[in-house]
Amino acid sequence: MDDKLAGETRERVSASLPAQSSVTLRVNGVEQQLKIAPWTTLLDALREYLYLTGMKKGCDHRQCGACTVLVNGRRINSCLTLAIMQDGAEVTTIEGLAKGEALHPLQQAFVDHDAFQCGYCTPGQICSGVGLIAEGRAKTADDIRELMSGNICRCGAYPNIVAAVEQAMRATDKRAER
Predict the structure, then answer these.
(1) Measured distance CA(46)–CA(80) in Å, rounded
(2) What angle (nearest 5°) sits at the alpha carbon of residue 129, between those of residues 125 and 134?
(3) How far apart are CA 97 and CA 53, in angstroms?
């Protein structure tokens, strides 16, 4: 009798859940088709369905920036964006920045400037920095600090992070001049 009741309960619960949603994302240059619950965040879709665990779930309230990814070239906090809202979008995660063995210029700058300590925030910091550089609004160290203020480093590596972004900005400017 308990098994029958449990089975009936499972059927009622399953019947009340919304259908899975189909979402197509182009993640790090590869088209991915997902069947997910409509309430699945982009962060959870990337981490739990595609096993891209570089970006972290920090606060889950868009306050720390550990989940920052690039969507259509713009930096966003993936913890508060539903995956279905990004259907058809180009998503770049920390895993998609390097070209083979060659690090992205900002990744290399983070290494050069020792711009990380525990490393938890590093993927979000780097994706945010890449988006910041692409925006072209930052001209000074103060601009970098202000425009990346949504990315928290609990270890306090900010001076090194700013130096790394400045180095990558200079490298990007030199490439643009060629």
Answers:
(1) 13
(2) 155
(3) 14
Q: Which domains does the chain have, with CATH numbers?
A: 19-96 (3.10.20.30), 105-177 (1.10.150.120)
- Cβ atoms < 10 Å from Cβ of 150: 14
Could you tell me if 31 and 91 are in contact, meaning their C-beta atoms sit under 8 angstroms apart? no
Tokens of 74: 């713009």
What pLDDT is recorded for position 18? 67
59 by Cβ neighbours in 10 Å (0-12 / 13-18 / 19+) ranks as middle
Residue with tokens 């780097």, as numbered in its chain: 126
Residues 90-101: tens digit of each pLDDT: 999 999 999 999
Interstrand relation of 90-92 and 30-36 (parallel, antiparallel or unpaired): unpaired
Location of structure tokens 């083979």: 100
Which residue numbers in the chain have pLDDT < 70? 1-18, 174-178
Q: What does the pLDDT look like over 59-97, one tens digit per residue? A: 888 789 999 999 999 999 999 999 999 999 999 999 999
**Residue written as tokens 């770049």?**
92
Tokens 């920045």, residue located: 97
SS3 (DSSP) at 1: coil
Specify whether the CB–CB gap between 32 and 83 falls below 8 A.
no
